[in-house]
Amino acid sequence: MYKFTTESEEETRQLSESLGQLLIEGDVLTLDGDLGAGKTTFTKGLAKGLGVKRTVNSPTYTIIKEYRGDKKLFHMDVYRLEDSDEDIGFDEYFYGDGITVVEWSTFIKDFLPEERLEIRVEKVDEQSRVFHFEPKGNRMIRVCEELQG
Ligand code: ADP
Ligand code: MG
């Protein structure tokens, strides 16, 4: 378990931008936490770290949005799949040629790949957040070690 605390939106973006720079295609990250915790904010910084120039917004109506930067980003928000157990072809993304970020991943937990970085966002107060990183698999452990410095 790795813990990162941020005291502003900007600090969160810096954290996830640094993480983004360590990622390679095929990496899968999950983001869970209450509404307004900072999942999408985290993804915006991550996208910057991947060299994505476009603005990343929550893909509420589409479930999956794809962005091209130096590396490709697949941004999923599966909130609307809460009561569904349908596989909508997740593996094409998880094992595809980009980095996948899944907001509200508990709703599709049966479909997640074994190797992944689980991130739980805890809202402490208005400005402060704790990001709990739980790496699954050796590659993500190394990524966390490097991020921690
Ligand atoms: P989610 O996707 O989890 O619903 P968002 O990222 O859309 O959450 O929203 C997070 C909100 O919290 C934003 O309005 C952001 O400005 C605010 N915020 C305040 N402090 C922080 C912080 N330390 N990290 C991330 N967001 C923060
Ligand atoms: Mg969101």
Automatic annotation (TrEMBL):
SUPFAM superfamilies per UniProt: P-loop containing nucleoside triphosphate hydrolases
UniProt keyword Metal-binding, yes or no: yes
Keywords, sorted A to Z: ATP-binding, Cytoplasm, Magnesium, Metal-binding, Nucleotide-binding, Transferase, tRNA processing
Recorded GO MF terms: ATP binding; metal ion binding; transferase activity
Family: Belongs to the TsaE family.
One Pfam family in the UniProt entry: TsaE
Source species: Halalkalibacillus sediminis
Assigned GO CC terms: cytoplasm
Gene Ontology BP annotations: tRNA threonylcarbamoyladenosine modification
Compartment list: Cytoplasm
NCBIfam families noted in UniProt: T6A_YjeE
Protein name listed in UniProt: tRNA threonylcarbamoyladenosine biosynthesis protein TsaE
Superkingdom field: Bacteria
